[in-house]
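Write out the 3D structure for:
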Amino acid sequence: MTDSLRLPRARGAVVVAFALWPAACGSTHEDAAEATTLTPSRAYSYAPIPATLRGANFRPSLAVDTNAGTSAVDLRSFRCSLRFSTPGGDQRTPLTVTSVDDATRLRLLLPAGLPEGSYDVELQDPHGNLSLVKNAFQSLGPDLVAPEVKLDSPLGGTYLVGGTRARVRLYRATTAPRSWAPAASAAATAS
């Protein structure tokens, strides 16, 4: 995915890749990207999960085409993955970088179907520097248990007319067999 920026036309078909801010400022030193937290830190994995990686110095590469007079942010210049440690070795799952909000936030897409467990996040910046956030994400696996819905009031079988308030509670399964914990409650007025 790239963001386009229009530049004045120049001669030659040269594509130049460089880090945005240091090249613009003339700096020769580039601080390494440093990842600190992933949000959400836990989720069910039955569907892709949009996430935000926070940290510092998230500066992507910029590709400039002087012939066409265009430039584009290269989101592939960051390599991000989830690392799951097993007795047989580490397993890595690549993540998709969907955008760079600023130098402190990367938007990611975690794939569906992550096995249940705790994952580290690895980030490699355009210069090859590696940043690691230990136990950054916990996959809860697929959400296979439907919530139980209980109507607190009015009692079951009662007809509702406009203005009647109903109290509803959702319960979620817990790790104990046949055990349920309150997940949410709400009140609504029939119309």
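The chain has one helix and 15 strands.
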